Amino acid sequence: MHIAVLMKRVPETTARVRPAAGGRSVEVQGGETIISTYDEIALERAIQLREAGVATKLTVVCLGAAEATKEVRKALAMGADEGLLLVDAEPFRDPASAAEVLAGAVKDLGAQLVICGWKALDDDSAVVGGCVAARLGWAYASFATKLDVAGGTATVHREMEGATEVLAVALPAVITVQKGLAEPRFASLKGIMAAKKKPLVEKPAPAASNASALDAYLPPPDRPPGRIVGEGVAAVAELVRVLKEEVHAL
Amino acid sequence: MLYLQEQHLMIRQTVRDVVAKVVAPKAREIDETCAFPWDAVKALGELGLLGVPVPEKYGGAGMDNLSNSILIEEVARHCGSTALTIAAHVGLGTYPILAFGTEEQKMRWIPQLASGQAIGAFGLTEPDAGSDAQATKTTAVRDGNEFVVNGAKMYCTNGSYASTIVFTAVTGTDAAGRKQITAFVVEKGTPGLVQGKLEKKLGMRASDTRMIHFEDCRIPVANVLGGEVQIGVGFKKFMQTLDGGRISIGALGLGIAQGALDRALPYAQQRRAFGGPISDLQGVAFKLADMATWIEGARHLVYHAAMLKDADQPFARQASMAKLFASEVGTKASDMAIQVMGGYGFVREYDVERLYRDAKLCEIGEGTSEIQRMVIGRSLVKDGCGF
Questions:
Q1: pTM for this structure?
Q2: What architecture is the B122-233 domain classified under in CATH?
Q3: A5, A39 contact by CB (below 8 A)
Q4: By the 8 A CB rule, do A82 and A201 touch?
Q5: B292–chain A Cβ distance below 8 A for any pair
Q6: B14 contacts A189? CB cut-off 8 A
Q7: Regarding predicted confidence, which is higher, A13 or A102?
Q8: Which domains does chain A have, with CATH numbers?
């Protein structure tokens, strides 16, 4: 079985992100870029399935900037067999268009199972995995906290309010994963050396077929100014009332 | 930085990942409790990071000294004690066996050391002898197929955890009456090898530093580093070992300096006084500028010395320069970070006081700054300025 892991390159969580001048793009200050956390969890589980012999091949697929070779190479160092980077020159691509490109790549690879994060850390759209499944006409399960594969069926656990839902999903399928499914490994030195020799194919991504257009990135609203409710002990009663009734912190 | 290739960037990233999860969260605690950084040693060993420059044939990663410098620099940004543990293990505990051991000795000891299953140490300094070899008092007297060793080595990093300790002892005198010194490997558990108590130190407090005593300790002739032909010529080897180890200590000083700037810069940008961030005040901005410039210079010296070694070119002078400069930058930059951060810098919660205490070791261990100046000075007189 061939697994494809879809991964996105995103700014590290400590980076400062704000609208750039003109409001048509965002500016990222400081911090490195990383593999989006949930995608990295998906990758870890895929590597485990590959090591256990359940999968015979593992390819990571990334749609993003040319600089994302860094993240794809890291995925290879962690244990993926091959990397495919679809270099995206579009200033804006909506999730449906991203899914169209990724589904096409998965089809070309001949994979039977796609695993990815339930959302990307940067845009939070949280629909790409589902859209890929729809495009391919495959089965789909989301928010997996446990994933096993045997005999053409994926067993997926989903945490619900008060219960764990256990699904048997017939392959081919797309599974999106939630925190807790696996703990991503560090790339070992052996892995880093091996990654140098693994194939990493870079191809230009097809033009975007956006159904939506980007109008603007607006800055977040300013924080409301502070308010002094009184001085000394006399202020306590009013302070407690504000915390309870206005901000609901108590 | 133009020196770095993709594999160096990948190693740096993997080290950053593991340091953030395993090393940084414990750094302050182990400084206070003086607990050996076992979790870090284990995690780094599993990833192959305790044998970076060791050839694959002996169980290492087969990568270059530049990669090893990057490893130590990145660990030192958060924990000097852990960085020193690694630097001593690789540069002093493993490297002499790798460079000067017989093939049989290498196969016997290196794979365990390179994979991190065992820790290595090195004993040179004595109560009355350091860089001056002729003052060595530890003796090894041949008795059949063994040497009987008596004496003591002090400030032995990783002393009590090491499965092998490389050390020197006097094995005779030459015609001119000069002491002949031989290098040996002693294994943990050898009768007569006695551990002293853990030293209480200014900094690097979680690094295991001890005296080791030899009390009629019998060591097989097979443990003479490099084999029997090397009896009486050990000291030159030790000096060569220190050349390479110095690059690591330079990387350690560099990492500490970077760690100081990592903390002082965001503080200065956030702390406001007189209507703006203090980073806008010239008195503070100049300090930050000096720190960043020193760090940049130290990084060039350290990386370049490592690259000379990797290219099998002479590197002793450059290693001493890198160690001298980067160590002093470590102390100066951490001192300055405390000054920028004021009271926050002085208390333990903000880590820069720990960096400052740790940094001082770099000016002392593996040859003091004064010894480095002597090495550089002698090399200038002997070989000219070389440019």
A1: 0.89
A2: Beta Barrel (2.40)
A3: yes
A4: yes
A5: no
A6: yes
A7: A102
A8: 2-204 (3.40.50.620)
